[in-house]
Amino acid sequence: MLKFPAESMRHTIFIRMVVTYLVIILPILLLGLYLYNWSYKNASQDLSRATLSQLTYYLEALNREIEWMEIQQYDLAQDTELNKIAVTWEFMDDVQKRESLNYITQRVTSLKNSSAYISDVYVHIRTIDKTISAMNAIDDLDSGKYNFFQSVDLKKEGRLINWNNFLELSVAESSGRMGEPPLFIIQIELDNEKLKDSLKQINAYAESGSLLVSMQSGYALGTGSNAQEMLQSYNQAMHEGKLEKTRVLDGMRYHVDSFSSGKLGMAVVTYLPETAVKRPLTKFVLWAWLFAAASFLAVLMYSYATYKLVQKPLLVLVRSFKKMESGSLDIQIVHARKDEFGYLYLRFNQMLSRLRMLIDQDYTQKLMMQRAELKQLQSQINPHFLYNSFFILNSLAKQGDITRIEAFSNMLGEYFRFITRNGEDNVRLAEETRHSQMYTEIQKMRFSRRIHVQFDELPEELENIRVPRLILQPIIENAYEHCLEKQADEGELRVSFEKEETEVRIIVEDNGSGITDDGIETLRKRLDQKNESYEITGMINIHRRIQLIYGEGSGLFVDRSGLNGLKVVIRIRLTGGEELV
């Protein structure tokens, strides 16, 4: 039962609206208190997204440069002149040797000038004990570099080899003999100063720095005043598996972002002091406190306005509804303001006025609509048997059986006298049963030799029960039409009656084999449907009529009969313990 605010304040809308407002505003207040940290985190995330995008672009651009160098390096390794020098040097005369060396020197110089990241290009030719480079031209074989790059494990080092903290690209040309060293090795050395210049371009602030590292080869290059310390801290974190967004060096916290390239086997790292990130956010602290104070003031003002404009008018409406629940329908609410409550009060007054008028009218109209629907459903059955009757009469006329035509005409007259009687919608069960027996007698004139009918006597205590007209005969007709007429063997029809304290059952069974278990289940589902798109005829018609009059629990129920055909049970629930429904 509804309690008034005087009895229980915690159940009032006023308290709930204030609590709801507090629930909404308190997270905002807490957000205001932590606005500074949130703004910093948001700025850090934006910075990280922008930085990661920049780092990704940087490593992709560097990878494209390396791929270009590798293509040129492998192209040089396949050069015919270079391979001729390495293999047929001792068979060449001096002029050929000089021309070939000059050609290779030009190729090496051209390769060096093709990229700003290349410091020098070396071709170490073992067979002639010469090293050709873009910077030093032709010199004696640099055995130290040759032996190093000959023995380097590319699977361990990766594409980029660390040589005295210089990044190198190397490719060797095999002699084709087992255990023999390569004919020559082409070495491309990257320029650390150019790499530093490229790293400086990705620094977003003057205080920031950048690192280019390869944990696989141990190469490291950095920019910034404390690049060495940051590099040591980063390498330690990599070994420990504890890479974080922030790092502390010499008491200063740094914001760190990194991105790795699996293709290059390298990572690029940028770091920026947190003071540089927080610098634009120093004014937010003051605004956060001002926002918190303004929010608390808004809570007080909202509470007062809610009570004045909502709670008090709502209590008037609640009290009026309480009076209406007790049966008083002459309440009038007076409200001076032209607001939403004024509209509600006006409609409440009008509702009470119309409620008294509609109570009787609605009930009467509902009964009339049910009666009209019942009439319409009954009218659908009346023509159904007429078609079959004329077909039977036509068959007898063709046979010239005058005696049976006379008997059939009398029975048909009695039959249609019953179904065309408009005096009452409901009849005694004894009359409905007699009418159905008349129908079976008519059918016996056609199927006496093929169909056996067992029609039990109606118990005397059931004779005066009133039921809708035409609820039993159409079920029997359905058995003839869909099962017994098509039966190859002898057909059998059984009609029986049962009664319990609150229910009467009329049971129609046949032994027809034309319906399957799936067909019975489909029929059962159609009977259970409340709204159907197809035309309502036959069994569904009867089911609807019985349910309209007797309510849920009554109607038709189908199952497999003991005769192995269809079993239809007409259930009629009795009321008041009497024999009248």
Tally the helices.
Answer: 16
- Described by its quaternary structure, the protein is single chain
What is the CATH homology-level superfamily of the largest domain?
A: Histidine kinase-like ATPase, C-terminal domain
Structural class by SSE content: alpha+beta
Work out the count of structural domains.
3
Low-confidence stretches: 1-7, 576-581
- Gyration radius (Cα, Å) is 51 Å
Q: State mean pLDDT (0 to 100 scale).
A: 79
What global shape is seen?
A: elongated
Specify the CATH class of the largest domain: Alpha Beta
What proportion of the residues is helical, as a percent range?
40-55%
Biggest sheet statistics: 6 strands, antiparallel
CATH topology of the largest domain: Heat Shock Protein 90
Strand order of the largest sheet: 3-2-1-6-5-4
How big a fraction of the residues is strand?
15-25%
Number of strands: 18
Q: What CATH architecture of the largest domain do you see?
A: 2-Layer Sandwich
Distance linking N and C termini: 38 Å
Organism: Paenibacillus helianthi
Domain HAMP: 308-360
Subcellular location: Cell membrane
Membrane topology: Multi-pass membrane protein
Task: Characterise this structure.
The protein is an alpha+beta fold and 581 residues long. The protein contains 16 helices and 18 strands. The strands form four sheets. Strands 3-2-1-6-5-4 form a six-stranded antiparallel β-sheet, with helices on both faces. A hairpin with a 3-residue loop joins strand 2 and strand 3 (137-140). Helix 12 runs antiparallel to helix 13 (429-447). It is found in: Cell membrane. It holds the Pfam family HATPase_c. It is a multi-pass membrane protein. This is Two-component sensor histidine kinase.
